[in-house]
């Protein structure tokens, strides 16, 4: 997918096929050719394609170069998302300085995180427009804009400045995270080869959003000035800028190939183009497709809508915990805001424990090719969902009830923290599984990029909105029943993977945007190697 359709939006979308026209497989477009081929539709245009062993093709890079590039991008995913929730532990200090008045049922300081997520929901729809520019140029452009938006957050003299600049910084983070994600399928071609880097990407994306209060709690404990949360971010982001500028290579194969075609045209005057340059859509059509198609799919495809709601609720809990843990642990144990920030490390620990389960789930998925009678040799899309049943029921649902009914002052603090860890465990599994499953469903019919864009937009909106109701819920219902309400919602949503596993094939066959096999025609798995 444009950037979205090759990464994730979050992330893992290289299967998004024809929506981006890109097909950098070794058979169709392997390494860089020094002389253009002539198998083109128009005799006046020469098409430049990769040759099989060109070292400039990212698929042909050495393993060490791939992993160094991936490490740079994955670390960026983690540190950039810290900007989203790191400020939540300083809500009281910001309220006092800017004279923000909270009510017993609503915290106005949460608008800082709401605006950050809504910016992400808006910006992410326009990612496909950046596709022609590759990975590095858009990354550096939005990284610079992001850095510039963190400066006024550190120096803000009024609350409105924080809100407005965080809309833009949240939008930039969404673009950067999804641009980073697109580098992974640019580097690794097969499902099995990219399973670890894709899993790491989703892990760091989720953990980065969760760990903001944990990472910046020492700032409030030892410095006591909320502006230093942003000063430290500026130091880190400023130090990373030259690293990305000088050491992050371009990873998008068709962009590298396009630059070569441009050089040949300039030096020789020959009409040499890549397939992507020849078939590029006008910007108006691309804009319409990038914005309208994800929203259309979201509201006309029941499977996509259910998947989006399920994943969005899971990720939304991460942001809800930035509010509820402070309410619960302050009232029950008299903790300070920064101490409540530390306890969210329990969610992070759970997410880390969930990652190996997602890798195991990928293994189950690949092995399902052995028993696929519908389309022999290809994995069954619903096999992705097996581990999510455990993660959703035992992780999120059970964890919410543990968190609910251990929220009593006569129980030790680590009792509700165990519930938080269980929920984090389930969140990691569900978010990862849904992303992979949606890509598998729509890859064969060229709509994977738009489908995953719909999921990302839904996640951002729910992450923005769910915590807005948190203060009212926990005040009016009490800690036990407020968390139980979320647990009952999680229980209901946990039925979604069971329905998909039971009726997945029928649901796929009824969809005009899926093919029943849920995979591209060239994605067969060699069963003997499993």
TrEMBL record:
Q: Which InterPro entries match?
A: MFS, MFS_dom, MFS_trans_sf
Q: Gene3D superfamilies per the record?
A: MFS general substrate transporter like domains
- Record membrane topology: Multi-pass membrane protein
Keywords in alphabetical order = Membrane, Transmembrane, Transmembrane helix
Q: Where is the composition biased (Low complexity)?
A: 24-38
Q: Where are the transmembrane segments?
A: 67-90, 110-130, 139-156, 162-184, 196-216, 228-247, 295-321, 341-362, 383-405, 411-435, 447-469, 481-502
Gene Ontology cellular component list? plasma membrane
Top-rank taxon of the source lineage equals: Eukaryota
**Does Membrane appear among the keywords?**
yes
Give the GO molecular function terms: transmembrane transporter activity
Query: For the region Disordered, what residue ranges are annotated?
Result: 1-42
Localisation: Membrane
Principal subcellular localization: membrane
Q: Where is the Major facilitator superfamily (MFS) profile domain?
A: 69-505
Q: Which Pfam families match?
A: MFS_1 (PF07690)
Family, per the entry?
Answer: Belongs to the major facilitator superfamily.
- The protein's name is Major facilitator superfamily, MFS transporter superfamily
What is the species listed in this Swiss-Prot or TrEMBL entry?
Septoria linicola
């Amino acid at each position: 997918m444009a950037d979205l359709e090759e990464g994730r939006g979050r992330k893992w979308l290289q299967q998004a096929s024809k929506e981006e026209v890109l097909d950098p497989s070794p058979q169709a477009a392997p390494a860089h050719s020094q002389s253009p081929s002539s198998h083109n539709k128009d005799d006046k245009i020469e098409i430049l394609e990769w040759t099989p062993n060109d070292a400039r093709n990212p698929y042909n890079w050495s393993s060490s170069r791939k992993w160094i590039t991936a490490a740079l991008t994955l670390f960026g995913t983690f540190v950039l998302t810290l900007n989203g929730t790191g400020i939540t532990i300083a809500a009281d200090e910001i309220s006092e300085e800017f004279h923000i008045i909270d009510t017993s049922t609503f915290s106005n300081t949460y608008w800082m995180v709401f605006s950050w997520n809504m910016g992400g929901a808006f910006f992410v729809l326009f990612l496909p427009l950046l596709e022609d520019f590759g990975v590095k140029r858009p990354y550096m452009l939005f990284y610079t804009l992001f850095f510039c938006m963190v400066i006024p957050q550190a120096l803000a003299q009024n609350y409105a400045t924080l809100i407005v600049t965080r809309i833009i910084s949240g939008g930039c983070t969404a673009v950067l995270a999804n641009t980073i994600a697109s580098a992974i399928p640019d580097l690794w071609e097969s499902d099995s080869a990219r399973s670890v880097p894709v899993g790491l990407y989703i892990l760091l994306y989720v953990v980065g959003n969760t760990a903001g209060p944990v990472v910046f709690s020492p700032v409030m404990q030892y410095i006591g000035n909320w502006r230093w949360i942003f000063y430290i971010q500026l130091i880190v982001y400023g130090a990373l800028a030259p690293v990305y500028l000088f050491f992050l290579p371009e990873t998008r194969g068709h962009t590298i190939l396009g630059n070569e075609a441009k050089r040949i045209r300039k030096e020789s005057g020959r009409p040499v183009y890549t397939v992507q340059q020849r078939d590029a859509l006008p910007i108006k059509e691309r804009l319409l497709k990038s914005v309208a198609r994800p929203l259309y799919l979201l509201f006309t495809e029941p499977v996509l809508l259910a998947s989006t709601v399920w994943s969005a609720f899971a990720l939304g809990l991460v942001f809800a915990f930035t509010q509820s843990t402070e309410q619960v642990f302050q009232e029950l144990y008299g903790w300070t805001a920064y101490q409540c920030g530390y306890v969210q490390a329990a969610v992070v620990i759970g997410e880390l424990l969930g990652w190996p389960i997602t890798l195991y789930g990928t293994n189950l998925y690949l092995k399902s090719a052995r028993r696929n009678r519908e389309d022999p040799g290809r994995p069954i899309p619903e096999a992705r969902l097996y581990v999510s049943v455990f993660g959703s029921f035992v992780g999120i649902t059970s964890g919410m009830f543990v968190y609910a009914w251990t929220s009593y002052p006569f129980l030790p603090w680590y009792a509700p923290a165990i519930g938080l860890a269980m929920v984090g465990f389930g969140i990691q599994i569900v978010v990862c599984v849904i992303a992979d499953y949606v890509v598998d469903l729509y890859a064969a019919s060229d709509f994977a990029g738009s489908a995953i864009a719909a999921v990302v937009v839904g996640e951002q909106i729910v992450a923005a909105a769910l915590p807005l109701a948190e203060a009212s819920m926990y005040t009016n219902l009490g800690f036990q029943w407020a968390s139980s309400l979320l647990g009952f919602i999680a229980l209901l949503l946990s039925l979604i993977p069971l329905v998909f596993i039971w009726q997945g094939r029928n649901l796929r066959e009824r969809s005009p945007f899926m093919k029943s096999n849920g995979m591209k025609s060239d994605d067969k798995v060699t069963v003997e190697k499993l």
